[in-house]
Amino acid sequence: MPETSSLPSAAAAALPVTPTAPVTTGETVAVGDQTPPDTSQTFASAQEMVSAKPEDLAKRYGLTDEPLAAEPTDPAPTTEPAAAEPVEPQAAAPETPAALSDAPPLESKFSLYDDQGELEIPTNVKLSFQSDGKEYKDLRLDRVVRMAQSAPALQRQLSTVQQQHVTALSEREARIAAAEQSLQEQNALAEALLADPALYQEAAARFQAMNSPEQRLARIQQQHAREREQLQQRVSGMEFQQTVAASKQFVETRIAPSVEALTTQYPDIDPSDVQAKFHELTAGLLAPSPAGGVWVPPQRLPDLETSVLPQLTQWAQARSQKIAQRTAVSTATAQQETAKAKEQTRKAQLDAQTATRRAARPLTPIGNAPSPDVPKPKPIKTTGDAVEASLERIRQQIAGAA
Asked: Of 90, 154, 231, 334, which has the fewest CB atoms closer than 10 Å, so is most exposed?
């Protein structure tokens, strides 16, 4: 092959040469004169499934019941009952084995009613009808009921099967379209390589460079490195989950009961204050978590038991003592106020009694003036009455002196 000049940089950059064989989607498609796989039968089968009627699909997959042939039944011979005198009701006589064998078993459970109540289900009644263009003949009543009972489930199964076929058809069409596009691209590339020797040499050189032993080894090493990194991440995630579970168990079994015991031992302290103080004391142990956020590292968990809990206990004791002292001071102050109020009440009562005694003494008339008519004082029942009587007596004295 004669020597040729290299391609321009833009054309070489746009050259669709990959280090490995052409990648196809779904089925493998050859390059060259070979033709894509024949998909006419697949399209025909899928389209037939989509356009088929539900009853046809049900027959194909065994999801329906064909009507049974009419079963000849001989009605039990009946005889006219002989007239008899009224007698006490007795239990009905059991049917004979022959009569029981003549009645076929019911295919479904149901009840039959009229205006008078429940009726016996007849076994010799036959129904004939048409449904969806199909004629059904000589079907017993229990068979018709069973068909009605199984219709919803059958319809759901048919819908599921039809949806599965539609989904499979869509996926197959997408794979076929991708394969055809890849085939067109590969044919175009092959035609370009065969039509331009320079392009062929450039592509061959790039292929050899990208698939040299060194390049293949480098790619394998990179793949192994990615796999090791992914494996290490999975292992690290599992170890982290185990660590979190162990830390949670440690806190629930050895730390949380002690904190709850403090709230029980010192009921005068609000539990929210205890929790706030616990978080304040553990703030110095927090560190960034591998999953994001902060946490107490496993190696610092013993510090919760040896350092944080003793500090929290001391704080709770001091807080309880302060609360007790404030309570004692408040109680003493309340007692003093109560004693002071009692003393003021006693003094008021003494003042009222003194005023009452003074008001009870008669006034001495002055000169020859006739003594004024003094109204009879009202009976004193309360301290207010005593004060009011004393004031009234003083007003009378002032009025007499004037």
From this structure: 90
